Hints:
- This protein is an alpha/beta fold and 251 residues long.
- The protein is 37% helix and 8% strand.
Amino acid sequence: MTSSLISSRGAPTKATTLNAKASTDFAVKLAETESLLRRAAAEFQPVTQASSLGAEDVVITHLINHLQLDIPVFVLETGALHTETLALLERTQAHSRAPINVLRPVQESVIQFVRHKGQDAIYQSIDLRKECCGIRKMEPLARALKGQRAWVTGLRQEQSSARAEVPLQDDSEVTTKGLSKFNPLAKWTWGDVWHYIAENKVDYNPLHDQFFPSIGCAPCTRAISLGEEFRAGRWWWEDETAKECGLHVKS
Length: 251
């Protein structure tokens, strides 16, 4: 993937054009994904989908709506999202059959962090960046998952070495947190994701057309260049092993 790929008219190449390429066993993967979502909705109530409105998450939300499943969706509106992400959130709320719940950080906590640590504190140390993630993501996540029996995420094995062993169903934290985690796209490739988006005309974040494969908060996300890994644009100033906000880090 490269930020220099431009169409003949001078516009960025569409992510669907560039990436959509289904695996030979895509139909099998899709059937497995649909079966898993149906089982989550039928056997693990209450269950909810966590959506960052990235490519994987819009696919899952589309499937939930298409299958008419009782799985509401929540989005963490951190107060630092790109305008493109916020616009997609509005469109998703307007057109989704499944409820779209928006959770925001405690405003006073954000104000105190900026007042005492500074607007650019996230670039000064990993601890400060994770403190920001704690305020903007982890605390709202805890509220979103309170009372839930399971949640659905867009994690894929291909995303990073840290996620290479992501299972379709993760029950490792049932004892400690009472939560199962479903990762219905765990086995999908990036090409599979975009094949589904293209085939079903799924609305997606236009930042993907600008070579943002993984999209988080605006200060923490940049486009990637040819040869860089999928999540290279997230917290790019940090060591590779530190690149998680905590949402998917096990206790």
